[in-house]
Design brief:
This protein has a 3-stranded antiparallel beta sheet with strand order 1-2-3. It contains 15 helices and 3 strands. It has 3 domains: about 110 residues, DNA polymerase, domain 1 (Orthogonal Bundle); about 180 residues, hpI Integrase, Chain A, CATH 1.10.443; about 50 residues. The chain is globular, with a radius of gyration of 21 Å.
Length: about 375
């Protein structure tokens, strides 16, 4: 269990979530969600699971298997598991379940669930607004660099947190480090194009920074010159020079405590803040920012429009697919299989997707 997690019982979690969504959902919808989650709360009680911090994907699989034995209609089961996934996505936002747990749950095929996920996704237009604001008022700050890499690479926060300065290949001087990697062919060095970032699986050390898919998740990811410029400026001007206890130089550092490397909870908090609309425009919820609880430290996720890091990944993958990127290419970039892309992240803008298909029509006319 991660040290970042905060204890929460299943019953209290469900009650808090239902209360949270009351302001943005019809009463009948909230009541329906409560009915769908009641069996999960009862199952947790029978199974002795009293802290959502301990919930694993295997537990959810066992719960789903138990529900299947009750001969539920397929749409009913899909709605129950879909609502559970939606609830756990909120739990991930408030540090109550392990990172990535909701994404390990197989997505039901009902349209209602896809609408839930779409509601959570950070759209390309919102990401662009946020990046434009950061570029204007907080250029090359730590939060600017973090948000930019989350959006541009579609990486998970574990991958972002694990980046070291040595993982950046932004100019010709950095290429020498590639010669020491056993998995890089010398001939490739003559052709490689810069800039790019290398995500590396490092499970050992203090602290360990593993990738979700371990060694298979290791990959170089190309970035644009504009992204490289922001990162280089952040390192030169705003990065606090620190070395972690394992002797590594993190890309994203903190000047607090002994850890040196920024924590996952700090990344989440920064994303919650940046995705609050009132930070760069008007509040769409008719709240007074001066008295809104969501602007207080520790309560940023209570804004109905704020998003955790994972919807950034979902939005980026969807945006790339809308731009015509094949799922195989997207998957290699963000460390996901094409099947996972189609099942969990492919939430298309149908009109835009039609436009990207036109070239195939023209090629075969």
């Amino acid at each position: 269990m991660s040290d970042d997690l905060e204890p929460l019982s299943p019953r209290e979690g469900v009650e808090t979530w239902l209360d949270y969504i009351t302001s943005s959902r019809a009463e009948s919808t909230v009541q329906s969600y409560g009915y769908r989650l009641a069996p999960f709360v009862e199952w947790c009680a029978r199974d002795g699971l009293d802290n959502l911090n301990d919930l694993s994907s295997r537990d959810v699989f066992r719960y789903e298997a138990a529900r299947r034995t009750e001969d539920l209609a397929t749409p009913t089961l899909n709605n129950q598991i879909g609502t559970l996934k939606h609830f756990l996505a909120w739990c991930e936002r408030i540090n109550a379940v392990e990172d990535g747990l909701p994404q390990q749950i197989e997505v039901p095929t009902s349209n209602e669930f896809r609408e839930m996920v779409s509601h959570e996704m950070l759209t390309a237009s919102r990401a662009t607004d946020i990046l434009e604001t950061l570029g204007r008022f907080e250029f090359a700050s730590r939060r600017h660099a973090m948000f930019l890499l989350l959006w541009h690479t579609g990486c998970r926060i574990g991958g972002l947190r694990g980046l070291d300065l040595a993982d950046l290949y932004l100019d010709d001087d950095d290429l020498e480090r590639l010669r020491h990697r056993a998995d890089v062919d010398e001939a490739v060095l003559e052709e490689v194009q810069l800039p790019f970032i290398f995500f590396v699986h490092r499970p050992d050390g203090d602290p360990g920074t593993p990738l979700k898919n371990k060694l298979e998740g290791e990959r170089p990811v190309a970035v644009t010159d504009g992204v490289a410029d922001v990162i280089e400026t952040y390192i030169r001007v705003n990065r606090t020079e620190r070395t972690d206890p394992g002797g590594r130089r993190p890309l994203f550092t903190t000047d607090k405590g002994d850890g040196a490397r920024v924590s996952k909870s700090s990344i989440r908090r920064e994303v919650y803040i940046l995705t609050q609309p009132c930070r760069y425009g008007d509040c769409p919820h008719d709240r007074d920012p001066a008295g809104c609880e969501a602007v207080e430290h520790g309560y940023e996720s209570r804004c109905p429009s704020s998003r955790s890091p994972h919807p950034i990944r979902t939005g980026r993958i969807t945006h790339l697919r809308d731009q015509g990127w094949p799922p195989e290419v997207v998957g290699e970039r963000v460390d996901a299989t094409p099947e996972t892309i189609r099942l969990h992240y492919d939430l298309p803008d149908k009109i835009r997707r039609m436009q990207t298909r036109r070239k195939y029509l023209e090629d075969n006319d």
